[in-house]
Structure formats: structure tokens, C-alpha cells
Specification:
The protein has 278 residues and is of the alpha+beta class. It contains eight helices and ten strands. α1 runs parallel beside α6 and α5 crosses α6. It holds the Pfam family Fapy_DNA_glyco.
Length: 278
């Protein structure tokens, strides 16, 4: 699942490479991705891209007089090609399929891809990104330099809800998904099933610090990484997420996997639960 560090890197890449280019043609290959029927993606043909920015786990391509918002969903991403769409391009056998393609001036093309078995990606053409319902509901973003401890405490709110679920809840905290929530909890030494209401002051302090350190550190680490390599860099940087059966890099205990409440978590029993497997 794309999360804020990688999506931020993608938005910065697009702001640099796509800005100033005119959209010459649009080809939507999967019409279930179109979420604004009155303003389909083809309606941006002839418009010029003026920038790009991130909203949580969404990318906004800013155009003159409109915006194309891409909701990346669970398996969505983008592919930049230094060639026009009708030119032969060599892709690896496991490259995800393009669901939409945008021909840009300067013989460049941008493809929106989805590697999942079901379509979770969405394309919105709007006057303002806030018109996209999921963006309108986003909570404060820990990557934002203006993010405060009061906002973090407000997201937790003493709720009788598991911390891992709150970290991934976009209406509470924007941009964090399954992978980085595992990393945050491991760094904070907090169990994924702990309820927010049960956190003591020390645990809450560690969790706040770990959230900022993990999200902002990952954004810095992804800076300049080619967008087709961002996923690999993310996977390689994980300490516990996706590491079931491996040794914890902090204490050497074996990382365990836990499935609960419709999600899964990888965690270290010693670092996060007093040595007791969940």
C-alpha cells in the first residue's frame, strides 16, 4: 500500500518532471477508475500541468483551471515513460498493468497502474482537491511541519480503540498505512493491540516521537529515489513489517505476525509486549 513517504516522493518527482507539460491525450483502459463522470479524465486534454502535491495517500496533478486527483488505493502507483504512449517500451514481465495513460508534451507519458487483483484506484477531475470526499475527511498529517502534539493527542483522544487501527485511520492521522504503523509501534515499544485509552504518559510520548521520526525520516530517505524503485527502498528499510520469522534488529527476539480485527501486524514480543507473544 502506498504511504505518505513514497507518495510524497512521487508528488515531488511529478512536480519537477511534469510541470509545464501539456496533456496531449488521455486513454482510460479501466473505466471503473473514473470517479467524476461529469468531468472524465479526457476532459483535461489540452491543459497544462502546473505542479503536483500530496494529500495523505493521494496525488494531485495541478492543471490550469482544474486538478487531476489520483487516489492510489491499495495497490496503485504511477509509471513515468520517456517516450510517447504509442512507442514500444520494454517493461519487466511483472510490471503492473496500466489502467490509464496520459500523453504529455515533450514525448513523455504518465501511466497510472494497479497491481491488485481488484481495482482500488480512483481518478477525479475536480476544481479543488477538497472536493474528493476522502481528502475532505483527512486528519492532520504527521509529515506536515505544522503538526502538533495537541493534534496527535486529539487523534488518540483516550479512545478504547487499538493504536494500530488509529494510526491507519486516515480521518485521524493522514498518510500512515499498515507498514509504517508497524514501524512506529516497534520504535515506540508499544503493542499493536494496546488501546489508546490505556497508554501511560511515557508510552504516549514515545509514540508521538516515533510517529514523527518514522514518517519524516522515511520521507527524507526517499528523496531523490527513482519512482520505480521506491517500493523496493521501502521494503528494504523495514525493521519489523514483512519480517515475520526474522530476528528483531534491536533485541534479537523473533518477529511475530498477528492477525486481528481485519488487519495484520508484525511485532517483536520482547520490545513491544514484555517478551510474551500476542
Amino acid at each position: 500500500m502506498p504511504e505518505s513517504p513514497e507518495v510524497e516522493a512521487l508528488a515531488r518527482f511529478l512536480a519537477e518532471e511534469a510541470s509545464g507539460r501539456e496533456v496531449r491525450g488521455v486513454d482510460v483502459l479501466e473505466f471503473r477508475t473514473v470517479k467524476t463522470r461529469a468531468a472524465p479524465p479526457a476532459s483535461i486534454t489540452g491543459r497544462t500541468i502546473t505542479g503536483a502535491r500530496r494529500h495523505g495517500k493521494h496525488v494531485e496533478l495541478v492543471l490550469d483551471e482544474a486538478s487531476l486527483v489520483v487516489s492510489l488505493g491499495r495497490h496503485g502507483w504511477m509509471r513515468w515513460l520517456d517516450a510517447a504512449p504509442d512507442e514500444a517500451v520494454s517493461l519487466s514481465a511483472d510490471a503492473p498493468p496500466a489502467l490509464a495513460s496520459f500523453e504529455l508534451s515533450g514525448d513523455r507519458s504518465l501511466q497510472v497502474t494497479d497491481a491488485g487483483s481488484w481495482v482500488s484506484l480512483g481518478l477525479f477531475v475536480v476544481g479543488d482537491a477538497g472536493e474528493v470526499p476522502a481528502i475532505a475527511k483527512l486528519g492532520p498529517d504527521p509529515a506536515d511541519s505544522a503538526f502538533t502534539r495537541d493534534q496527535f493527542d486529539g487523534a488518540l483522544g483516550g479512545r478504547r480503540k487499538q493504536i494500530k487501527a488509529i494510526l491507519q485511520e486516515q480521518e485521524s492521522l493522514a498518510g500512515i498505512g499498515n507498514a509504517y504503523s508497524d514501524e512506529i509501534l516497534h520504535l515506540a515499544k508499544v503493542s499493536p493491540v494496546t488501546h489508546a485509552a490505556a497508554l501511560d504518559d511515557g508510552s504516549a510520548d514515545r509514540l508521538f516521537d516515533a510517529t514523527l521520526t518514522t514518517v519524516r525520516g522515511a520521507i527524507d530517505a526517499r528523496r531523490g529515489v527513482p519512482i520505480d524503485q521506491l517500493k523496493a527502498h521501502k521494503v528494504a528499510a523495514m525493521r519489523v513489517h514483512g519480517r515475520t520469522g526474522e530476528a528483531c534488529p534491536v533485541c534479537g527476539d523473533i518477529i511475530r505476525d498477528l492477525t486481528f480485527a481485519g488487519t495484520s501486524a508484525q511485532y517483536c514480543p520482547t520490545c513491544q509486549n514484555g517478551g510474551v507473544p500476542l
